[in-house]
Structure formats: C-alpha cells, structure tokens
Amino acid sequence: MAVFKKEFGTFDISKITSEEIMDFLINVSEGQKQTTKKLKYSLLKALFNFIKDSVDLSLINPCESPILRKTFKVAKGQPWTILDRDVVDEIIFKTDNFRNRLMLELMARGGMRVGEVLKLKAKNVYDRKLFLSDPKSGRQVEIVSKIILRHANLATTQRYLGKVSDTEAIYWIENIYK
Fold this sequence. Notes:
Elements lengths: L1 H7 L9 H11 L5 H21 L11 H6 L13 H9 L4 H13 L3 H5 L6 E2 L2 E4 L8 E4 L10 H7 L4 H10 L3
Antiparallel strand pairs: 1-2, 2-3
C-alpha cells in the first residue's frame, strides 16, 4: 500500500486508468511468481471496490478490465500423476529400511496419512486391527489390516511398534491367511 500511495498519492482516484494500474502492477511485481502477482492485483482490486462501496458509488474500478484479469490470472496446476499399483508395490518391495517399508505399506494399502503412521504405538495394535486413537477426522478409526502382519517373524512390527509376546505372535502368524 505504501508503494501505491507513493505512486498515486497525488492522483484523483477516479482518474486512475487501467493502463496505469497495469504499468504499476508490472513494475511492482517484476520477477515474482504468478501467484504473488495475482495477490497484488486482488488486493488493489479490493481497495478500489472498498472505495467504490464506501465513498463513491459512481467510481469505476480500473482493475475490472478484462486485460488485467487475464494478465494476473493464476494458471491451473498440473494434475497429480497417479501411480499404478504395480509401481507402488515395486517401490515398497525395493525399500530396504524396515521402518520406511512398513510406513509405505500402511499408507499405500491402509490409506493412512503420514502423521497417523508416525503416531502408531504398540497399544494401537489389537489382533489384526489397528486403532487410530487421534486421527485427523476426529473420531477413533479401526483399520482391519494384514499389512502390519505381513512378515512371518513380525520383526518389523516388533522393532517399530514394540515387543509382541511369543503367544500373540504365533496366534497372528497362524491366523493371518485364514
């Protein structure tokens, strides 16, 4: 606003043209990202709308010109690339670190978020179910999953979620593929 005041402080607000606004915005936002340019344009447009609504209803907003709208429009983003299931499986199985592999499996196959996976503790595992005690949705969620039980010796589960008793491990291994 200080730059706008310095540039147009002595002007009659109703005499400012779209071309002057265009030159001002180009000079002020030179070398900046398109989203920053759009923000500056939007703020200036809001200022003129405020002046129009509160001071002079006959004021024509110079920011309403089609050329300004088009120049400072933010381009639509690229759509996300969705990986095939085979590619995801390959990424998971080529991961050597047990922790990272378990995290990837829980996220890809269980639909869990990174934060939810990182908050998991041994107490969240019961039978073949994971209970998310504080999920983003706000209510307790139960995930029935074989992901956490994928390894026959449960080494990954034991290492990252806590020790599992031998009896419980044998029960899981016997019932995993039923």
